[in-house]
Amino acid sequence: MNRLFGHTPLHGRVLTALFLAALLFTPLIADRYLLSVLILVFYFAYVGQAWNLMMGFAGQLSLGHALFVGLGGYVSAALWLHLGIGPWLGVFAAIAIAASVGAVIGWLGWRFGIEGVYFALLTIAFAEFTRIGFDHIELTGAAGGLFLPVKAEEAGQWWNLRGGPLLFYYLALALACGAAALAAWLRSSRLGYQWLAVREDQEAARALGVNIFRAKMIAMLISSSMTAVGGVFYAFYYRNLFPAQVFDIGRSIELILAPIVGGLGTVFGPIVGAFILTPLGETLIRLTEELGYNAPGTKAVVYGLALMVIIYVLPSGVWPSLSRLLRLERRP
User: How far apart are CA 164 and CA 151, in angstroms?
Assistant: First the structure.
């Protein structure tokens, strides 16, 4: 517990507990639409936290992280559809495959000194290669998509992630809270300080005895594994997967916006960013539908404008300024 809240004053812990309690009881008063928006908020907070561990903590830029969402989703969905293996078991296969692919990307990049923007291009390339490959794999539906059938007799099978919004709401909330707790624990651990050293100055970290390659690889393995779990959630929540959708670079950009807006390298940044951007995007979609205005790319344009304004006004993100305003962190 000390690692999770060691630098948080008492009133900060109280506010966190009250906020969590409010989220736990929200389904009692919320309608179906609000629950669906909150599910997306928690989902983006979770996958944003997974990316934040790699970029915000270890300083390694990945712009193809949707690769791991797609792999997690396709592996778990294919196991369920063709072999009858449920998602609670399929998630381990999804983690193993995503972590293996992440290890290959990390080894190719860091063993041969590919850094910065070139490493980001490498992640994009792997995501694009995978998208093209899944476009031609008949076992997973190829370009036509993979669909998980909805059967009436399976409606209450929570162990197979078959249920209504309430099931996915609490599951997404648990994922977001678990990711935040893990991030807080890692930030205060020996590994977290090694990541910080690597992020700030690799040569100085090497001089202090930090194994740079090992630290980066661990960040990649943890981040890819967590993102794959998010992919499993995505597949069983939406019940359909399309290569052009889940592996697209636009999906990767959408995934990384929450931690950037909320505050890179912070625990609560991805959560705050998700609570800002997701309701904004969903409100925009609803307004355009009601007004009969359906211009492609409108959501992306609004996201871009919001990102520019926030970065201009708050270069470190929303959470660092908000935490100082509310005095939620004390100096260690």
Answer: 13
